[in-house]
Design brief:
By secondary structure, the chain is α+β, with helices and mostly antiparallel strands. It has helices at residues 30-37, 53-63, 118-132, 148-156, and strands at residues 15-16, 20-24, 69-76, 79-89, 101-109, 136-144, 160-170, 176-185. The protein binds coenzyme A.
Length: 186
């Protein structure tokens, strides 16, 4: 286990286009992440939200030191404006353990930067790197049906909607949320 590194995903960091850079996060990024994690407008569809800066730092420390976990900062003009990452895991099998890896993808963007193509650009950078550098076979994103901005980010990047579990998860407002599965195959 190595803090601040993504030792078991073989990706040549950073990933960059003309505007965005994605690089592995470290605990030093926790304050920037917490700046938007604590905002109510970004919390509606997120499961794990740190309540304090101490909790935010602990969460980053845990995620950056867990095998198979990836947590990256999304940087624009030298500022951390979001995060993207997820978890690598073995696909299911009815026989021997497959010698393949799948990946569960997630991301968030500072509300002050919404609607400027940040999440779309970050997914466009990370997905090919996961497939072609890290050897990931299938990338899965679970998105609540109400979260149309996130579904749009994924569909624009070639993810396909595979199914929707109806009224599957209890939302923070007490309503039941439909849970969509989208995936991208190598
Ligand atoms: C979802 C989220 C990451 C999108 O980030 P973003 O940087 O604003 O996304 P982008 O600007 O790249 O793209 C958003 C797309 O959704 C569209 N969109 C935005 N709000 C929408 C809505 N209410 N209905 C439909 N489409 C919407 C935008 O028009 C854009 O599509 P376009 O480029 O074709 O016009 C951001 O809203 C966020 O951080 N939300 C809170 C955390 C979260 O929900 N994370 C995802 C969990 S699965």
């Amino acid at each position: 286990m190595r803090t601040g590194e993504t030792a078991d995903l073989e990706i040549a960091w950073p990933l960059s286009d003309s505007r965005l850079t994605i690089r592995p996060a470290s605990v030093a990024d926790a304050d920037a992440f917490f700046e938007y994690q604590r905002r109510p407008e970004g919390q509606r569809y997120i499961s794990r939200i740190p309540a304090t800066i101490v909790g935010a730092r602990a969460m980053v420390a845990e995620r950056t030191s867990t095998a198979g976990e990836l947590l990256c900062a999304i940087v624009v003009d030298g500022q951390v404006v979001g995060d993207i990452g997820g978890r690598r895991y073995r696909p299911g099998s009815l026989g021997p353990e497959p010698q393949a890896w799948d990946f569960r993808l997630g991301y968030s963007v500072h509300p002050g930067m919404w609607g400027k193509g940040v999440a779309s650009g970050a997914v466009a950078l990370l997905v090919p790197a996961l497939h072609h550098q890290a050897g990931i076979r299938r990338i899965v994103a679970k998105v609540f049906a109400d979260n149309q901005a996130s579904i749009r980010v994924l569909v624009k990047n070639g993810f396909r909607l595979e199914g929707t579990e109806r009224a599957a998860v209890l939302g923070r407002d007490g309503g039941w949320l439909d849970d969509c599965t989208l995936a991208h195959l190598s």
